[in-house]
Amino acid sequence: MRNPLSKKIVQVKPSGIRKFFDLVSEMDDVISLGVGEPDFDTPWHIRDEGIYSLSKGKTFYTSNTGLKELKQEISKYIKRTINVDYDYNSEVLVTVGGSEAIDIALRAMTDEGDEVLIPQPSYVSYEPCAFLAGAKPVIINLKGENNFKLTPKEILENLTAKTKILILPFPNNPTGAVMDKTDLEAIAKVIIENDLYVISDEIYSELTYSGKHRSIVSIAGMKERTVLINGFSKSFAMTGWRLGYACAPKNILEQMLKIHQYAIMCAPTTSQYAAVEALKNGEKDVEEMRRSYNHRRRFLMNAFKEMNLECFEPFGAFYVFPCIKEFGMTSEEFATRFLTEEKVATVPGTAFGDSGEGYLRISYAYSLETLKIAMGKLKKFVEKLRKEKIK
Amino acid sequence: MREEILSILEKNSKIDLNELAVLLGTTSENVFNEIAAMEKEGVICGYHTLIDWDKISEDKVTALIEVRVTPQRGQGFDTVAERIYNYPEVNSVYLISGGFDLLITLQGKSLKEVSLFVSEKLSALDTVLSTSTHFILKKYKDHGTIMSAKPKDQREVLS
Question: Are B97 and B91 in contact (CB under 8 A)?
Fold first, then answer.
């Protein structure tokens, strides 16, 4: 029999989160701080709208680009949040989560050998998607001393004649880092000077704790060279609905649409109706969830301070990224021991790239009660490791 | 900060001052002063515990009573409301719009006890025109809290 597999797909490494997942699944009574999705249920009025659309028999395909009403609401939402105009008719595409948008943007914009700059630690899908699109992923290793922000210098150091795209993953999973206005202006200059394009993954845009989210597309000259990606999963606690969107200049979006049309057809209809309700009437829910995340974020930062665990203060998403270098073990060793000895699951920083070595991703998409118990265990564990070290 | 303190306390009045300060990113002294001020101003009127009495004893009934009254010259509904809310078995008294005037919630040991209160105390007030009593059969949600068991975390352990 011939080998059924493509040489290309075989080369792709399985996700680092997956590996740890298998280990955790075998254990009972584990407290997990490992998820990348909100602990809140989708607000009831949004679910209700989905149910209503089903009961009304709205179960057909929508247009390939998405429901007109939803695209209009997305366009309005972007206008009121970051003050940028997108034509709902030609510059907005509703996708199956932000993930699909990442994939099709990369496939629509790269040719064999084009280089894609990917800052890491970051979400696990950019590198394989770029690779599968035929491009060459070039990793930028973000540094703890910069609080995991991306600097113009780091872009320039990795630039070649073939560099075409920069992935911009802020607010960041797993570090929680955000880029403020000055940070963005500094890199926009380099991007424009070197004629690069940007795929800006802003899926955590509603979850910032030091003022409102800033987008690179608000900077003059950037909208025309950026694919803006966002979605409903994190902001409205709608992960399972699988709904995201991309906003881009017409000439890019038209090509993305071809892939979307042939591979996906359209995003789920029920989810689209629910999402209209989310954008129309969901602002208060977002505000409430953000406030709750912020309480937990402060609680964790304080807990780390009390146990003398180094951690820069992250102002976005729902992750903290403490440094565990003092214990002289790898992230994976630390996370594995923490799991087996204290039954708390976290994700080693290395699951998000080599530059995550020495760090741990802790999600605070959990109730304060759960976080309290887990921090008690972390304290105990950290003290035990420090004693071991002295011996 | 007041509104944020209140929204936390409303859900968990047991929270420790130091913890509250951590959540709000301020000092416990600030939180203490703010709460003390709100108690003094009557913004915070009390600290209660939400109890599902059904789990403890059978002999407790709650009734909602709609009352139509004649407002009194110069005092409106206030005098009659006062006469009603002074009874310790009355939990709450609201003046409301619509087909009747006052809505009362009342707790008693039995249907009989509540009926006696309505017939002998409430209806006997000369300003009360009529009453309509509804007994609560089951409490699904109270003070924003769903009374049934907490659902399990349905998420995958890692993602």
Answer: no
The predicted pLDDT at position A367 comes to 95
Residue A19 has pLDDT above 90, yes or no: no
Q: What is the pLDDT of residues B55-103, one digit of tens each?
A: 887 788 999 999 999 887 777 899 999 999 999 999 999 999 998 999 9
Residue A390 has pLDDT above 90, yes or no: no
**B69 shares its domain with B116:** yes
In the predicted model, what is the mean pLDDT of chain B? 91
Domain boundaries, chain A: 7-42+284-385, 58-281
Task: Please tell me which of the candidates B8, B23, B158 has its beta carbon nearest to residue A32.
Answer: B158
The topology (CATH level 3) of A7-42+284-385 is: Aspartate Aminotransferase, domain 1 (3.90.1150)
User: B133 and B98: one domain?
Assistant: yes
DSSP class per residue in A30-87: PEE-B--S-SSPPPHHHHHHHHHHHHTT--S---TT--HHHHHHHHHHHHHHH-----
- Chain B residues whose CB is inside 8 A of the A40 CB are none
B117 shares a domain with B68? yes
Q: Please indicate whether, in this complex, the C-beta atoms of B159 and A20 are within 8 angstroms of each other.
A: no
Q: What letter does residue A206 receive in the DSSP assignment?
A: T
Tally of domains in chain B? 2
Q: Which residues of A touch B8 (CB under 8 A)?
A: 295
CA closest to A367 among chain B residues: B153
Q: Which residues contact B116 (CB under 8 A, 6 or more apart)?
A: none
Average pLDDT, chain A: 96
- Residue A119: pLDDT band (50, 70, 90) is very high
Query: Largest alpha-carbon pair distance within chain B?
Result: 67
Predicted confidence (pLDDT) per residue in A23-82, tens digit: 888 888 999 999 999 999 999 999 999 999 999 999 999 999 999 999 999 999 999 999
CATH code at A58-281? 3.40.640.10
Task: Measure CB to CB from residue B158 to each of A20, A39, A291 and give the nearest one.
Answer: A20
Domain span at B10: 2-40
B26 with B59, same domain: the answer is no
Give B52→chain A minimum CA distance, Å.
21
CA nearest to A344 within chain B:
B157
The token pair that represents A52 in the structure block: 């209503």
- Looking up residue B116, the CATH number of its domain turns out to be 3.30.70.920
Set of chain B residues whose Cβ sits within 8 Å of the Cβ of A295: 8, 23-24
CB-closest option in B19, B22, B159 to A35: B159
Q: Establish if B67 belongs to a structural domain.
A: yes
Say if the Cβ atoms of A299 and B156 lie within 8 Å: no
Alpha-carbon Rg for chain B, nearest whole angstrom, is 21
**What is the C-alpha separation between A120 and A167, in angstroms, rounded?**
10
| B157 to A21: CB separation less than 8 angstroms, yes or no | yes
Q: Does B4 touch chain A (CB under 8 A)?
A: yes
Closest partner residue to B157 (CB to CB) among A34, A299, A302 is A34
Residue B45 falls inside a structural domain: no
